[in-house]
Write a structure and sequence with these properties.
The complex is a heterodimer of chains A (about 180) and B (about 450). Chain A is α+β, with helices and mostly antiparallel strands. Chain A is built from 2 helices and 10 strands. Chain B is of the alpha+beta class and about 450 residues long. Chain B has 3 domains: about 100 residues, 3-Layer(aba) Sandwich (Rossmann fold), CATH 3.40.50.20; about 70 residues, ATP-grasp fold, A domain (Dna Ligase, domain 1); about 250 residues, D-amino Acid Aminotransferase, Chain A, domain 1, CATH 3.30.470.20. Helix content of chain B is about 35%, strand content about 25%. In chain B, helix 6 crosses helix 9. The mean pLDDT of chain B is about 95. The chains are: A alpha+beta (about 180), B alpha+beta (about 450). At the A-B interface, loops of A face strand 3 and helix 3 of B.
Chain lengths: ~180, ~450
């Protein structure tokens, strides 16, 4: 716990908790998006959260992008927004480990627009199920577009924690298909 | 009429089409790349689908993702806007193969019109005037020499597959012909994968004059008069006006009728524009046809009081044109300024970023077509257009004053953001521009005059 915490009065405590609640909510909602960093502020309190997991084979930036384009939220490719456990926040507030349950699940995102299929063929065994262990690069599902079956591979290894979409469901680009728990947990 | 239209575009034109759909009671679907997730069209349309990352090749040009989005949302038509897939016959075919109406001409018509050599041939047969030159592509240097001998210099060698100023070389002296002929062909092969070139007489400082038309599927076409788009820099239009003050009423009626006849002769349906060059003797020569709605369509709307996007949607849904030629009256004068995120003091270098302040002008006959709002970030991946500012007034002089007034009110600020507003205002104050004696050389000359005066 930060040294400052014991000196906060009750109204401040409520403000701090609401800022945290908002930050946690945003972490969940921004899962699977390309947001790299965001901040939540109210009164004197501000939380800044940055992507914790190191980017795995991040896509090269588009050729047209000049250096230093855009404002505070910079677009980038990479895995889901993960908040590293025990991360220290910007000066003056709290350490994360004390307040939140860290969510380090890595989402598998749809690489294109189409229909999600859990198995390679109708009636065949699904590629993975909840609890399946997955190697990096292993096919976990298919997204079909215009009769072309596109295999979707897990970027990192892990265990399938949740399958979010249903077989036959239509998905859009970067929609979360499933969550993997990283292997080294 | 369509139930639901998917808009395969972004920025201001996507919002424009969504607005027309809303007014017509048609559901709209916006597609977006990651950079456009919070865009005006996405907010306004009835539905939105994330189709890819920032890169246009993986989003706005990604045919499978776009068709997938249309299928999922049950769209029965796709409006391609301008640029992107709007003149891609392959995309138009895919739409049709998937039971989706492409809002534009049929693929075979689009192909004919898109091929400069074929278009010139067909339009000449339909009675449109052409510059002296070839219809057939020129196969050898010897042929080129023969043609040059008969049409004279200066002449221009143009890649059949080129356009928008690319793939062309002007030849002023006979000594340069062979070298430039060879260079143009090899560049065309490298860039467009098609080395075919044609040759025509080159006009120094003509006026870019184009005719707006819409044809329905019932054999009828209407022209919505002409636009003068001579204020260009590197073949990109900056300021457009309607009508052209250099055409008499007889000329504009004549060229309008010929343009419609030409379009109908190739079975054209939808909105389209015939481009001409107007020389100093008042002769118009057909250059090419654009088989899509164009950026500058609002100036024609302002002088005719017809919503061209609605008309386009109507005819592509199989309905007849809602107006006859007699209904379409030309009234007053309209000017459009394209406000771009570019720094006119640094050779129009891109100067995009997040807009902290965005306050567009208002007032009488002042129209702003824009997707921007305070907090919107102009991304570096697409064009630098912030807004189209269009004004109308009974006469050209009043329109110029109105445009200057509107530009003076337009507040656009952001870190690193520069706009072409100061440039537009300087042009509007310029004697030559005010006189109306504007040709395609204007911007170059204007910029040199400014440099000399500085």
């Amino acid at each position: 716990m930060s040294d400052n915490e014991n000196t906060h009065s009750n109204p401040d405590r409520e403000l701090i908790e609401s800022v945290w609640a908002e930050a946690r909510d945003l972490v969940k909602r921004l899962e699977g998006s390309s947001v790299q960093r965001f901040a939540v502020a109210a009164g004197d309190y501000k939380i800044e959260i940055e992507r914790g997991a190191p980017p795995a084979a991040a896509a090269p930036p588009p050729a047209e992008a000049p250096a230093g384009a855009s404002g505070p939220i910079a677009p980038s490719a990479g895995p889901g927004l993960g908040v590293a456990p025990g991360a220290r926040m910007a000066s003056g507030v709290f350490t994360l480990g004390d307040m939140a349950q860290p969510d380090n699940r890595v989402p598998v995102l749809a690489p294109l627009v189409g229909t999600f299929y859990a198995s390679g063929q109708p009636g065949a065994k699904p590629f993975v199920e909840i609890g399946s262990t997955v190697e990096p690069g292993q096919t976990v599902c298919i997204v079909e577009a215009m009769k072309m079956m596109n295999e979707v591979a897990a970027g990192e290894g892990g265990k399938v924690a949740e399958i979010v979409v249903e077989n036959g469901e239509w998905v859009e680009f970067e929609q979360v298909l499933m969550y993997l728990e990283p292997a080294d947990e | 009429m369509f139930e639901k239209v998917l808009i395969a575009n972004r920025g201001e034109i996507a919002l424009r089409v969504a607005r027309a759909c809303r007014e017509m009671g048609i559901k709209s679907v916006a597609i977006y790349s990651t950079a456009d997730a919070d865009s005006a069209a996405v907010r306004f349309a009835d539905e939105a689908v994330h189709v890819g990352p920032h890169h246009p090749g993986k989003s706005y040009l990604h045919i499978p993702n776009i068709i997938g989005a249309a299928q999922k949302t049950g769209a029965d038509a796709i409006h391609p806007g301008y640029g992107f897939l709007s003149e891609d016959p392959f995309f138009a075919e895919i739409c049709s193969d998937n039971g989706i109406t492409f809002i534009g001409p049929r693929p075979d018509v689009m192909e004919k019109v898109g091929d400069k050599a074929i278009a010139r041939d067909l339009m000449q047969k339909a009675g449109l005037p052409l510059l002296p030159g070839t219809i057939e592509p020129v196969g050898t240097v010897d042929e080129a020499q023969e043609i040059a001998a008969s049409i004279g210099y200066p002449l221009i060698i143009k890649a059949v597959a080129g356009g928008g100023g690319r793939g062309m070389n002007v030849v002023r002296r006979a000594e340069d012909l062979e070298r430039l002929y060879t260079t143009t062909r090899s560049t065309a092969q490298a860039v467009f994968k098609d080395s075919a070139v044609y040759i025509e007489r080159y006009l120094d400082a003509p006026r870019h004059t184009e005719v707006q038309l819409v044809c329905d599927g019932h054999g009828k076409g209407v022209y919505f008069y002409e636009r003068d788009c001579s204020v260009q820099r590197r073949h990109q239009k900056l300021i457009e006006e309607a009508p052209s003050i250099h055409l008499s009423d007889e000329q504009r009626k004549d060229i309008g009728e010929r343009a419609v006849a030409g379009a109908l002769s190739v079975g054209y349906t939808g909105a389209g524009t015939m481009e001409f060059l107007l020389d100093h003797e008042g002769n118009l020569s057909f250059m090419e046809m654009n088989a899509r709605i164009q950026v500058e369509h609002p100036v024609s709307e302002m002088v005719t009081s017809v919503d061209l996007i609605q008309e386009q949607i109507r005819v592509c849904a199989g309905e007849p044109l809602s107006v006859t030629q007699e209904d379409v009256l030309l009234r007053g004068h309209a000017i459009e300024c394209r406000v771009n995120a570019e720094d006119p003091d640094r050779d129009f270098a891109p100067a995009a970023g997040r807009l902290d302040t965005y306050v567009p002008p208002g007032g009488p006959w002042t129209r702003v077509d824009s997707h921007c709002y305070p907090g919107w970030s102009i991304a570096p991946f697409y064009d630098s257009l912030i807004a189209k500012l269009i004004v109308w007034a009974p006469e050209r002089g009043e329109a110029i004053e109105r445009m200057d007034r509107a530009l003076s009110e337009f507040q656009i600020e952001g870190r690193g953001v520069k706009t072409t507003i100061p440039f537009h205002r300087r042009v509007l104050a310029d004697e030559v521009f005010r006189s109306g004696e504007v040709t395609t050389d204007f911007v170059e000359q204007f910029l040199s005059r400014e440099t000399v005066a500085a």
